[in-house]
Amino acid sequence: MQTKKYYLKKMNPTNINIKVLYNYLKQDFERMEIFPHFVLKRNLKRGVMEAVYLTDGQEKYGYAIYQQVEAFEGIFISYLAILPKYRSSGLGSELISQLDDLSPNGMLLEVEDPEAAGDKKDYTTRLRRIRFYERNGLRINSDMKLNTFFVSLRLMDNAGKAAAYDFSFYQKLYNRILGLPLGSIFIKENR
Prior knowledge:
CATH topology: Aminopeptidase
Order of helices and strands: EHHEEEHEHEEHHE
CATH superfamily: Gcn5-related N-acetyltransferase (GNAT)
Number of domains: 1
Number of helices: 6
Oligomer: single chain
Radius of gyration: 16 Å
Low-confidence stretches: none
Largest sheet: 8 strands, mixed
């Protein structure tokens, strides 16, 4: 049996491709976690954000949406998901590995803070996600606890660059995505 060769394919930001991607986001993330369609479309078309699919040339297995961040010398991943029918098959680790190859200087991403979970099931799910990222080489920045658009988050990176980003750096990432200085309004430190 021949093993599949996976790779990242950059999405061409046409209107129809963005619509398909947005439908994936709606299936994989809570409504409060998704940027409005017009924000995502504007950023993909302007090249502020990029989207890639994990593929073998035949099927799409997962995707990531990220932005290059010069100050961090790496990428900030806004969204990362494996399509539901392919989950729990090792493809999440494959996607992380491919993104690591794409950005050898490091990755930065958000995870929901387990301490802010609403119930035991939510707590377990959040902790499982953190453990997944830890198994794939990312570490929690113990100095950063955030509340972003009313969601308690922690930041993780795989470059040991916690000193390279602080709270104002994170606000600027969102200001860049949103095109407005809303980071200071909707992104707060949790202590």
